[in-house]
Amino acid sequence: MAQPIRHDWTRAEVAALFALPFNELLHRAHSVHREHHDPNAVQVSTLLSIKTGGCPEDCAYCPQAARYDTGVQAQKLMSVDAVVARAQAAKSAGASRFCMGAAWRSPKDRDVEKVAEIVRAVKGLGLETCATLGMLSGEQAQTLKQAGLDYYNHNLDTAPEFYGEIIHTRQYQDRLDTLDHVREAGLKTCCGGIVGMGETRDQRAGLLQTLASLPEHPQSVPINQLVQVEGTPLNGTQALDPFDFVRTIAVARILMPASMVRLSAGRQQMDDAVQALCFFAGANSIFYGEKLLTTGNPDVEHDRQLFARLDLHPLEVAEETDTVHADILETEAAGCGNGCGCSAAA
């Protein structure tokens, strides 16, 4: 019988999960995973950056920040027709949800109105819609909901006490406030973070404890491994031990059993064995395609071969629930690549 879903995990309890012997932790996580999900099905998704670069934020990992010299060129918001053409191609390829990201700190009302027009057009194709645009007011969230938006991505990035080491241009509470506005508008949430930014294990526990303490667990929880980009302050950070990343996936699965746990940015740097451990530990969602925003992603054929070797299958549209979506699409996107919530890997 499945255990009740909790929202009252303490930091000490989460830290104790991280401290379990590796095999014991994976056993517990996989047992929870099997109670709530098909252990051999993986959601495959993608997103399109509809406005890239030029962001005024100073997120230390992000090549879209205007203040860093990373080779990412600022681009204007794509036209409705251009986005609809990509969305139609997505639908033709079998996608059921179309994700759109824009590199803003906080969009102006006129920007939200333009995105709402895009959302209405994409929704008119019969697709579910998802967006990540930065911080939103309650009124902006309502505007997007009324336009037909289904999901909103906004990541916490890291633990509250480590956040100030990574970002100075917005506060942690700003992110929590946006999530409140999104939930109050009736939108579903996609919210996770980035590991490998120099944080401690206890701070990784803090990130997951904060996520699991939200009034409603995010329907999708992207766990991103830092993708180091030349020109950003975090380039050169000591790489996270792969087994510590697997532990993070496992703990996320135990804390948020019904959520889709997404093995997100950084997958190109993982070998197949590490990815297999992540799937066993409870990851059941990935991005599919040869490019993940501005950073690389395992190519489509490699993913197909890996799925075949592991006897995994993409989650079919017929299997979908409110928290499960099969978005199979081969497309390019441009943006951060670190799941930051500006044009994030959700």
Automatic annotation (TrEMBL):
Reactions it catalyzes: (4R,5S)-dethiobiotin + (sulfur carrier)-SH + 2 reduced [2Fe-2S]-[ferredoxin] + 2 S-adenosyl-L-methionine = (sulfur carrier)-H + biotin + 2 5'-deoxyadenosine + 2 L-methionine + 2 oxidized [2Fe-2S]-[ferredoxin]
Amino-acid positions noted as binding [4Fe-4S] cluster in the UniProt annotation, renumbered to this chain: C55, C59, C62
Domain Radical SAM core stretches: 40-267
Keywords from the UniProt entry: 2Fe-2S, 4Fe-4S, Biotin biosynthesis, Iron, Iron-sulfur, Metal-binding, S-adenosyl-L-methionine, Transferase
Enzyme nomenclature, EC number: 2.8.1.6
Pfam families referenced in this protein's UniProt entry, alphabetically: BATS, Radical_SAM
Superkingdom: Bacteria
GO molecular-function terms, A-Z: biotin synthase activity
Cofactor binding description: Binds 1 [2Fe-2S] cluster. The cluster is coordinated with 3 cysteines and 1 arginine.
Keyword match Transferase: yes
EC class (word): transferase
SMART domains named among the record's database cross-references: BATS, Elp3
Cofactor(s) the protein needs: [2Fe-2S] cluster; [4Fe-4S] cluster
Binding site for [2Fe-2S] cluster: C99, C130, C190, R262
Pathway participation: Cofactor biosynthesis; biotin biosynthesis; biotin from 7,8-diaminononanoate: step 2/2
InterPro entries tied to this protein: Aldolase_TIM, BATS_dom, Biotin_synth/BioAB, Biotin_synthase, Elp3/MiaA/NifB-like_rSAM, rSAM, rSAM_sf
Its biological purpose: Catalyzes the conversion of dethiobiotin (DTB) to biotin by the insertion of a sulfur atom into dethiobiotin via a radical-based mechanism.
The protein's assembly and partners: Homodimer.
PANTHER family, alphabetized: BIOTIN SYNTHASE, BIOTIN SYNTHASE, MITOCHONDRIAL
Family designation: Belongs to the radical SAM superfamily. Biotin synthase family.
Protein's recorded name: Biotin synthase
Gene that encodes it: bioB
